[in-house]
Structure prediction request, 88 residues.
Amino acid sequence: MKAALLILAMGGFCASAFAANLPTTGPDATVPVEQYTYSTHLDIAKVISTTPIPDVCGVVPARMDYVDSKGIEHVLEYRVMGNGCMDG
Prediction:
């Protein structure tokens, strides 16, 4: 189980690094990827997209693309608990 979680976490980091190098809109547009922390101030006017949360029991990376109140696009990466954990 620990090995599977480690592989999942490493895959998430690799995917994050790969995704950080891709343009998000337009042929040459680049929006820097921000890493969420508890002190991050969020100014979300409109959510453009979010990644689906997988059915695994563990912490997984997630991403949200959004526009702030000034019309500036942001990409936010954060960690969430997967949807695969059962109670009891």
Q: What stands out?
A: The first strand starts at residue 33 and ends at 35. The chain has a mean pLDDT of 80. Helices lie at 2-20.
